[in-house]
Amino acid sequence: MSVNERTIGDELTDFGVAIVGDIDLELIGKVKAQLESPNIKQRHRRQTELGWNSACDAIVKDFETRLKPNIPPLCAKPCQNRRFIYFHEFPTSSGTYKPENSAGKHTVAIVIRDGPGLPLIYKGSHKSNELDPSTLDTASTNSSGAGSVIAFNANMVQKDVAVTGVGWAGILLVY
Question: What are phi and psi of 54, to 5 degrees?
């Protein structure tokens, strides 16, 4: 590795967010097919939680065996929570907020269907309370679409976005 080459660990430490890889599209397709007639578990304010199933398990297994070992902040941590969700119609965005999480928690977002919904995050806000508007970004805009895996520090300052029409769908894992 050259001196200028950054690792996933560097990105998570410095910016709090990193694109960590891709899940096999065949596995993504099996979960995406379930969005046609979703098994709704619970509807929340901005998102709908869907029933977990064996296709979701296969995606998590792919992530944990191929990608997670290459993510230093996560490799030794067990998954503490998992959800299969999609963001539904919600006409307004929120103000900024900092989630109440203990230090060292990370969220992994696995894209099943791209679209609006993942919150905007202030890169680097896990290390400082000073917010630079130029760092406001959404990890999903940096992804390459379905199958992309994004990891971010759960203590980042966030801003929920308005969702019109079909929103982001995916699997969220908490470490």
Answer: -65, -30
Residue 120 · residue 159 · CB < 8 Å: yes
d(CA 142, CA 25) in angstroms, rounded, equals 18
Q: What is the largest CA-CA distance in the chain?
A: 49
Residue 6 pLDDT > 80, yes or no? yes
Q: Flag whether pLDDT at 45 surpasses 90.
A: no
Lowest mean per-residue pLDDT among 3-7, 66-70, 127-131: 127-131
Which of 77, 62, 53 has its CA nearest to residue 24? 62
- pLDDT tens by residue, 90-140: 888 888 877 877 778 999 999 999 888 888 887 777 766 665 555 566 554
Residues in the chain: 175
Please report the pLDDT score of residue 136 as a whole number.
60
Q: Match 């109440």 to its residue by tokens.
A: 100
Alpha helix locations (H) across the chain? Answer: 8-14, 25-32, 54-62
Evaluate whether 49 touches 83 at the Cβ level (below 8 Å): yes
Distances (CA, A) of 134 to 13, 71, 121, 163: 19, 26, 11, 22
